Amino acid sequence: MAFQSMLIVLIGSTPEYHVEQQQVPSSSQELVQRVVFTEDFDSIVTEWFLVKQQAYKVNLAGSLFFAGLLVGNIVFGPLSDRIGRRPVYLSGLFLEVVFGYVTAFAPSYEVFAASRLLVGLMNGGISVVCFVLVQEYVGKSYWAMTGTLTSLCFAIGIALFAALGYLIRPWRNLTTAANSFGVLFFLLSVTLPESPRWLYCQGQTDRAEQVLRHMAMRNGNTVTNLMLQRVVAAKVSSPTKRQTGLLQLVVHPVLRIRTVVLMYVWYSCSLVYYGLTLGAGDSSGSRYMNVAMYGLVEVPAYPLCMYFINKHWAGRRKSMSSFLCLSGSACFCTVLIPDNTGSVLSVTLLALLGKLMVSAAFNIAYIYTSELYPTVIRNAGLGVCSMSCRVGGIMAPFVPSMRVLHSSVPFTVFSLSGLSAGCLGLMLPETLNGPTAETLDELTGPTGSRVLENKALLYEHDK
Fold first, then answer.
1. Residue 203 counted as domain residue
2. For residue range 31-73, what is the model confidence (pLDDT) as tens digits?
3. What CATH number is given to the structural domain containing 120?
4. How far apart are CA 326 and CA 367, in angstroms?
């Protein structure tokens, strides 16, 4: 997924070129401009001459990918809540690989752009489902770890893509190689079971027990008397269909406030994260080294997440807001550096620091959001939040190009976004050491409060 997200950074990179004036031998003696690329580099820019008035098509292809992510989040999230995590994930991954090969062999820019839209559609769908599936395979006490490792793999994927791009220069070969990894992951994913939490919330208690026995067997444990509470399953199964759906995110008073705040937090995280990352190819120096640095700089962010979000004095809420504010502050500091000082390195370091901080905030937002939504509507909630995240992603490719107005404009946008989202995130409740709600009834009312209190006692007992 990181390969597909970063693909346009290398295959859409513009090499050095100049424009020659050539006289066409004719009666009118017309002058024709001819673009000559002086750098030995192969990309969609050199193949379809996407320069000057056509240069916008590179950013357009990147935005189409994120537009596909947006639609995928809307469609796939609620769909997986209804028919299951596993079938939606496998179908999306299979189609993403198919459309990825269409990108590699696109005969024209129009086909290329359409394929990027379809790849983004599938990528956005499986991104939320994949994350939720990972979380629901393990107990809540492991959610911070599995969520962090998932984000860490994305950061490592960015760095590996830079290495792959350095080794494979032709853009079609690079696209084919990057997409071929999806074939391997699809074959590995076929063996994955369905989420036991989803099965349990759907009242399919027998199947949930089978999955748990399978997990125990693969872990080397022998389970002879594993039985889930049928009473809870029966209680949950009947109203589940009525409780799920995007409408509940608007109607339910608790979820409505959480969703509005989380949507803006996700939007800001995406705008700053992808804005800084996609601008790596335009920075001075080796484009491959820049992409690798913007990926590797995320790695220290995840141990920081693991440390802070599990401390009672920090938790999820304060950690996420603090990292967002620090990211906005780092971007603001770049605005204070004069253009004529030649201190490009200082601007780069501050940009990398901002990327590190927003990566930490982005990772916490994933974990935090999955804990704020009940199981019956978790994928729908994550899907809507990720939808607003993709709006930021659609705008991100165009923000670095705003430096034509003034060099400080992109970082000003990133700074204001990070600071405002950090302050707004403080409105959310803390979820550290708290139980996870399974149904909407557990969020409000005396019955739900008693259920959560009992879960809290069980949670502390398990710890």
1. no
2. 445 777 777 888 898 888 888 888 889 989 988 998 898 888 7
3. 1.20.1250.20
4. 19
Give residue 105's pLDDT band: very low, low, confident or very high (50, 70, 90): very high
Local confidence band at 361 (pLDDT 50, 70, 90 cut-offs): very high
Residue with tokens 């935090």: 368
Number of structural domains in the chain: 2
Within this chain, do residues 58 and 133 fall inside the same structural domain, yes or no?
A: yes
Return the SS3 of 159: helix
Please give the backbone phi and psi of residue 251, each rounded to the nearest 5 degrees, phi first: -75, -45
Question: Are 273 and 421 in a shared domain?
Answer: yes
Regarding whether 303 and 167 lie in a shared domain, the answer is: no
Residues 270, 164 within the same domain:
no
343 lies in the same domain as 413: yes
Which element (helix H / strand E) includes 77? helix 56-83
Looking at the fold, whether 168 and 283 belong to one and the same domain comes out as no
| Closest to 169 in 3D by CA, of 282, 13, 343, 339 | 13
Would 440 be classed as within a structural domain? no
Range of the domain at 266: 241-429
Angle at which helix 109-136 crosses helix 378-395, to 10 degrees, equals: 140
Tell which residue, 232, 247, 287, has the closest CA to residue 447.
232
Q: Classify residue 23: in a domain, yes or no.
A: no
For residue 153, is it within any domain? yes
pLDDT-derived band of residue 231, with 50, 70 and 90 as boundaries? very low
Nearest to 437 by CA among 422, 421, 454, 425: 454
Considering the domain architecture, whether residues 150 and 263 belong to the same structural domain is answered as: no
DSSP state letters, 93-110: HHHHHHHHHHHHT-SSHH
Q: The tokens of 255 are what?
A: 């979820």
Banded model confidence at residue 463, pLDDT cuts 50, 70, 90: low
Per-residue pLDDT, 284: 60
Residues 183 and 273 in one domain: no
The CA–CA distances, whole Å, from 207 to 84, 213, 243 equal 12, 10, 22
**Contacts of 99 by beta carbon, 8 Å cutoff, 6+ apart:** 115, 118, 119, 122
Stretch (H or E) spanning 341: none
Long-range contacts of the stretch 256-263 (C-beta < 8 A, 24+): 257/427, 258/372, 258/373, 258/428, 259/381, 259/384, 259/385, 261/424, 261/425, 261/427, 261/428, 262/365, 262/369, 262/372, 262/381, 262/385, 262/428, 263/384, 263/385, 263/387, 263/388
pLDDT tens string 234-285: 344 444 444 456 778 888 888 889 999 999 999 999 999 988 887 765 566 6
